[in-house]
Amino acid sequence: MGADVSTIQSALRETWTEAKIAEQLIQDNPVLSKIRQVKNTQMGEYALTPIHIGRNWGFSTTSSSGGTLNSAGNQSYAQAQWAYTNQHVQVKIQGSAIDQTKGDALSVASVVDEEVSGAVNDLNRNLNRQIFLDGTAQIAQCGTTSSSTTVQLNTTSGYNAIERGWLDVGAVVDIGTTASSATIASGVSITAVDLANSTITVSGSAITTTSSHYVTLKGARTTAPVSLEMNGLHNIVSTSATLGGLTTASYPAWVAANADSTSQALTLSLLYQQNQKIAQKAGATADYVVTGLKQQRKAYELLQTQVRYQSEAGGTGKVDSVIINGVELFAVPDCKNEDIFFLTAGDLLQVSAGDPYWQSKITGGETLAWVQGEDAYAGKITVRMNIGARRRNSHAKLSGLT
To answer: How many domains does the chain have?
Structure first.
């Protein structure tokens, strides 16, 4: 077995380098790849970036004979503070799977690649989930459940979470209030999901929930309460949420151009209005418009009566061809059904403490180590990062679309 373990390590070092993991997590992520990575001042667990909050009002007009000038001004800046979030995924390879390769290097590499590729993809999906939420780590709101292990979820947020696989069989979750995330259930496993009825079935004792309760992944919120997950587009593109430690009350310019949560059907006017509001504030329209598959389809249907499908060779249904003000309406399956985000990609920030890495970079030793008491070898991949913004008024959103 010693020779086979050596072959495992060799396969990992050659195939799953830190650069390869970073590429699959960041460059291959449809949203993160658009958000620029920034150099920042690092203070312990935080990244610090300057935020422009005011113009130079040292402006004067005088008569031809001159006059007293107004006091000199300057550009005003504040300092945003971004906490790194610690995202981990563990990789485990069964000893029996390695035994079956009989030490063949190519076979071992195939086993390793299958497990690591899947783990990195799962980590990517969790990062994507966080991007399209609101930074609270709350995945779904509960509905009314009366002493049962089948938990009713809100029919909107619960449906979204189940449909996108954010809540699925095997996930370990906490259920509780905003103030205390595990008061109803702590570390229970999801044993079944029902998309049609927006319910999950959990292990353990029967529980009772109301709309004041939320489902999070186990340990994703501390009792402070503080979310341990990344900021999401919902709290970045907001007119009220504190972001980067800066409140909208103290910094009135630190708000999105528009954040409309009205329950309404998508219209062409609504699409045009968002760019109008952004241009009014920022001087230019959005350069990245992202939505889910439902609203991408709805936008395409709005245009059906106005086109002849010449580019579709006599067919129809090419819903990924919608263009808004010269910008493609890009669809990501993890974006919720009700949302469209109008973004200026260069004004979003991706801060990180470095590339993703295997734990052996910190602890030394082998990348995969024997799991004591098990016929298995395991390792951990970590990425420390967050997303934020250098300005908010160049973004807008619609979040109540039907």
So the answer is: 3
